[in-house]
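Pipeline run #58 for the internal structure catalog. This entry was flagged by the ingest filter as a single-chain record with no existing model, so it goes straight to prediction. Upstream metadata was stripped on purpose; only the residue string is passed forward. Reviewer on rotation: M.T. Logging verbosity set to normal.
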Amino acid sequence: FYVEKYPKISMKSKRIANSQSGDFIGYFDLTIRDVTKEVKIPFTYKESNGVGTFKGNFTINRRDYNVGGNSMVLGDMVIIDVEIEVSL
């Protein structure tokens, strides 16, 4: 990831929508190594004992963000799991 030059990965929320399954779909601008692309993340939200939990996952092509080069052992598609807990 060349963290000396690009120490942060950021996601900026654009909008949230209800999905047909009753869960949610978030639209975010994902920035990795100065490359920004919109990603769509289906996610769930549950509350329990004063804690809210968001869970979802999405897939990106690492080469879209200039991560790594040609590789016979490194796949291009990467699944990213996200879990965020918030206090209520």
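catalog note: The chain has a mean pLDDT of 94.
catalog note: The radius of gyration is 15 Å.
status: ready for reviewer M.T.
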